[in-house]
Write a structure and sequence with these properties.
homodimer; about 350 residues; alpha+beta; 60s Ribosomal Protein L30, Chain: A; Phosphoribosyl-aminoimidazole Synthetase, Chain A, domain 2; 2 domains; 8-stranded mixed sheet; 4-stranded mixed sheet; disordered N terminus
Chain lengths: ~350, ~350
């Protein structure tokens, strides 16, 4: 495709191009004129992309669940390091993880995208392809967009999911004595980021599970739905900013404290079958730090009342569910290491924090 | 308030601060613990700010109308020029104008905000105050937010409105022969921007209607609702990027063309009672250019079938409604000046255009 003609695209042309590449619900204008996609969009969108706004209609007994997330160059990704397709995928996946945390089923999303003119060509095509891939995996449709030119890439994604009325997972239902679980393994995305920063594009050429977790995180949608529908969890959230930071948030919302056990934490390093255990004390400390403070794992953290614990399987569709501690009456989050308990300070990703 | 302590705020603290200043729907956690605001929020938010996502519930026979808009430093506003309160007001008002264009009633909004650490203090307070003012005027509640640090301010606002099922205004219903109307007067915001750029803060100290239109645009919500509820308009949209650009969009969506008359356009300069008419040909040409291509007026452009035209009042609650032309079978937008008709090229605000 011609780079120069792409640079001359207008905002409307870019939105139209995004809507062609990314699965999207189309406007009433197209419906009225017998557009072939029109019939497939009876799903709840009365009016899709291409008008001033989209119109969505909830089914009986269902609620809409809405969340928004930014994805910024220099903050959430690096232009020199991250492939455009990974940026597109991750910008959506990151927001979708909030829907997983609520036990909602993703349906629609809106995209606000600012980008430099030099990225309106191939970069945009790759970005759209990556986002389209994510939209297909999560079965979502783009219903609105706003594109503007700026010096750096800035995306903001608003996701809309559906949930059975009164059955969403919140952060606030945890009670003292409830058992804490996490899905998957912690610290993988952080390890992937570190290897990517160290080795750059060379890391891309060799398969690495950790790198994959950094570039293509998998929101735990099926697990979130299961926990919500079967009323297993008393509270839940996704771990986007690191366990130490996010657990403190869950505790604050629930009005409780927590104690977790270092030895129980499912480490990213345990994931590879037959993997050599990290042997040095320094290596183990770094691994623990990544599991506690490493962001972007997008695993679910959830609490389960004791009488429900037996209902939690060890594996949910191939994803391990691990008991890591319990909620306590005493406020604050504590970490037990080798029988000693100490306060666990939020050490994760806090944009305006001291870190 | 202490500037240094503000700079050390965490992301969660900033979101919490925004939620205190800006009218917002609170989370279930607060509801559960008998928060005094809880009772007032039976309005359709089952779960507000403070969790992974918000939950909204539509009333019977009502649809949700959703739109998203970016508001970027250096693009939509200038840090050295625009007061933070105006930035906060306008970021929301701009997005709300899309709801007015649909005939929807605003209800909720989500805010994605990136800002430098140096703006996390007084600037943020003023921004929040301006946005709170807008939220009160439009009767909206904040239900979600995401804050991150970046070198420049970037806001993205997603607005959610409510409309009677099947009664929204779209861009696509216009038919040849329908009469075109605009609300208010055109070019005022552009004139305000020009005086602001010329005189900066000095312009702020003297009252100017045009400056007010630039800093505090008024989305035509009541008019949009009236047009939608009474089925007066066949198509409608808001003029955010300039009449020449937006009319072309309405025509494309409706599959028609349009002819408008220069002499009929309601000019910003006519607004001041007893104002001296601009006398020079050059002055009049500049005024016409601003009316055609000046962005950010946020007036409504709508088409009305001929048999409905008598139902359109000359004034709607103090806002003049002016007949400016008609939709045509022949594609393209044309402008008639002194009996001569020429093609009108979109000359408004197009971020990736040749302009």
């Amino acid at each position: 495709m011609n780079q120069i003609s792409l640079r001359m695209r207008t905002e409307s042309e870019i939105v139209a191009r995004l809507a062609r590449v990314i699965p999207s619900a189309i406007g009433a204008s197209a419906t009225a004129r017998g557009h072939p996609k029109a019939r497939r969009d009876a799903s709840g969108v009365a009016l899709g992309i291409g008008d001033d706004a989209a119109v969505i209609r909830a089914s009986r007994g269902r609620d809409w669940v809405v969340s928004t997330d930014a994805f910024l160059e220099g903050r959430h990704f690096l232009a020199r390091l991250h492939p455009a397709a990974a940026v597109g995928y991750k910008a959506l996946a990151r927001a979708v993880s909030d829907l997983a945390a609520m036990g909602a089923t993703p349906r629609y999303f809106l995209l606000t995208l600012a980008l430099p003119a030099g990225k309106a060509g191939q970069w945009l095509e790759d970005f759209a392809r990556g986002m389209a891939g994510a939209a297909r995996v999560f079965r979502m449709k783009l219903i609105g967009g706003d594109v503007s030119r700026d010096e750096r890439v800035a995306a903001a994604v608003t996701v809309i999911g559906e949930a059975q009325r009164g059955r969403v997972l919140t952060r606030s239902g945890g009670r003292p004595g409830d058992v804490l679980f996490v899905s998957g393994r912690l610290g993988a995305a952080q390890a992937g980021l570190e290897s990517f920063e160290r080795r750059g594009m060379r890391a891309l050429r060799e398969y690495s599970h950790a790198l994959d977790r950094h570039l293509k995180p998998i929101p735990r949608l099926a697990l979130g739905c299961w926990l919500a529908e079967h009323r297993v969890a008393s509270a839940a959230m996704d771990i986007s900013d690191g366990l130490s930071t996010d657990l403190a948030r869950l505790c604050t919302a629930s009005g409780v404290g927590a104690e977790i056990h270092a030895a129980a934490l499912p480490m990213a390093g345990d994931e590879r079958p037959g993997a050599r255990r990290i042997a040095t004390a320094r290596g183990r400390a770094a691994e623990l730090r990544r599991a506690l403070d490493g962001g972007e794992d997008y695993e679910l953290l959830f609490s389960v009342p004791r009488r429900q614990v037996s209902r939690v399987p060890q594996n949910f569709r191939g994803v391990p569910l691990t008991r890591i501690g319990e909620l306590t009456l005493r406020r604050g989050v504590r970490l037990e290491v080798n029988g000693r308990t100490r306060a666990l300070r939020p050490g994760g990703w806090e944009h305006f924090g001291a870190r």
